[in-house]
Design the sequence.
């Protein structure tokens, strides 16, 4: 057994790891490298491995930095099988179709061909199969899934077959922890780990009994506000913007973050904690993703399910407006303030939020609220770090609006909870590979695991293979 880390090390985005088990070559995630543009030049570099040599690809969840290069992989020769939960497949198709539009727009601007096209997305979905949570699936020497069961994750996979078991990562709908078993060894890929307890989703499941863990570290050196504190801050920021007769702009990822923010504002409105003002969800993608969430409430936590059973439409309330067309998006700017505008993208890299930031950043009555991780080089990161001017669409924009942030709405675990999570594998784990974080964050978390959990943890090097045998 061997793991090679091709991308997703020394960086938050671009997850792409190769697990070799005997003669099987297995990819875990194939994400887009993100920064100041959707189509960073790094995404155009040929894969170091030959795509046609890969037997199968396992996808932890549907965020673009974990799925965004799958159509490119297929375009360049991959013809194996893609596996994920059913919900991840549904969401990934929406995310990738939306990405095609963004990539085509950037390609036209640069005078180059897009990274991939809609047909490449369709070809990828044709190869995609699903496995539900808490299911152990065995693969034979022909890479065929030969048996599934709902039994425990323990097995005796040896010689001619290996198995994979799926646990709930609690990060976004359908997000998965994969545990691969072969010849008495278990290798765990966490994907991104949820900021449990979530308003909507179930808690991250423990991983006892594993030998090796590849784990994320986005917030490896930071802790979030408490759940109560973040709700109070959101309430305070909304009230403050209303008192200034301003507009609150929330750049939010269309997947998970938008749904959580809708849920939180719903509670504030229905409890009459804040006045009922117009709330615009200005993202066609977020609208489609919310529809998937509405159809998947069986995966919500007990509290959210109870609210739904009592008749609460948790994704709808008075004056909530979903905008689809470009015309209705532009009309938002003519509507009277105070109001709230939630629009993608979460890091202000693309999407409709950039237009709203151009309009509202120069006015001190307004507020921009950052509720997610902001990658280096993005407009979101510049705002987070206090920039007085930013460039959007080639225009230099003065920043006079209030810039606020609430880390507690991140869908990632913070440093303390990452350490707590890895403690569930303390009795069995031999080695932890810390990935998917900026170098400082990953190094800090690795040191904490070494010191506090007593398990060897390292930040692996890009392109280096680590032998597990």
Sequence:
């Amino acid at each position: 057994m061997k793991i090679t880390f091709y991308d997703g090390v020394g960086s938050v985005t671009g997850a792409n790891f190769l697990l070799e088990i005997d003669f099987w070559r297995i990819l875990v995630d194939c994400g887009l490298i993100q920064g100041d543009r959707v189509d960073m030049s790094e995404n155009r570099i040929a894969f170091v491995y030959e795509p046609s040599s890969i037997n199968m690809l396992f996808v932890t969840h549907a965020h673009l930095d974990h799925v965004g290069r799958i159509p490119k992989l297929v375009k360049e020769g991959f013809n194996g099988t893609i596996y994920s939960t059913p919900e991840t497949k549904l969401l990934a198709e929406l995310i990738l179709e939306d990405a095609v539009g963004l990539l085509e727009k950037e390609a036209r601007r640069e005078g180059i061909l897009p990274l991939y096209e809609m047909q490449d997305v369709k070809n990828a979905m044709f190869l995609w199969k699903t496995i539900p949570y808490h299911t152990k699936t065995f693969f034979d020497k022909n890479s065929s899934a030969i048996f599934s069961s709902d039994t425990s994750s323990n097995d005796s996979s040896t010689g001619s077959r290996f198995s994979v078991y799926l646990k709930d990562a609690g990060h976004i709908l359908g997000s998965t922890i994969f545990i691969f078993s072969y010849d008495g060894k278990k290798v765990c890929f966490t994907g991104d780990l949820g900021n449990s307890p979530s308003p909507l989703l179930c808690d991250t499941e423990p991983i006892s009994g594993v030998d090796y863990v590849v784990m994320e570290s986005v917030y490896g050196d930071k802790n979030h506000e408490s759940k109560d504190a973040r709700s109070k801050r959101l309430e305070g920021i909304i009230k403050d913007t209303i008192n200034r007769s301003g507009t609150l702009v929330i750049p939010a990822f269309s997947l998970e973050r938008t749904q959580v923010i809708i849920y939180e504002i719903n509670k504030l409105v229905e409890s009459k904690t804040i006045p009922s003002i117009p709330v615009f969800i200005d993202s066609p993608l977020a609208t489609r993703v919310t529809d998937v969430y509405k159809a998947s409430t069986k995966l919500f936590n007990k509290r959210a399910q109870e609210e739904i059973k009592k008749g609460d439409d948790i994704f709808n309330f008075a004056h909530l407006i979903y905008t689809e067309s470009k015309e209705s998006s532009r009309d938002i700017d003519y509507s009277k303030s105070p109001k709230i505008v939630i629009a993608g993208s979460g890091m202000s890299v693309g999407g409709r939020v950039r237009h709203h930031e151009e309009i509202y950043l120069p006015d001190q009555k307004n507020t921009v609220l950052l509720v997610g991780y902001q990658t280096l080089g993005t407009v979101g990161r510049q705002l987070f770090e206090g920039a007085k001017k930013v460039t959007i669409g080639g225009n230099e924009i003065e920043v006079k609006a209030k810039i606020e942030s609430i880390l507690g709405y991140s869908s990632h675990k913070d440093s303390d909870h990452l350490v707590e999570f890895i403690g569930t594998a303390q009795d069995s784990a031999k080695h932890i590979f810390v990935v998917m974080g900026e170098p400082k964050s990953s190094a800090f978390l690795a040191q904490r695991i070494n010191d506090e959990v007593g398990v060897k943890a390292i930040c692996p090097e890009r392109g280096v293979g680590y032998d597990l045998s």
The CA atoms of residues 54 and 371 lie 37 Å apart. Residues 2-222+411-467 form a domain with the Metallo-beta-lactamase; Chain A fold (CATH 3.60.15.10). DSSP finds 13 helices and 23 strands in the chain.
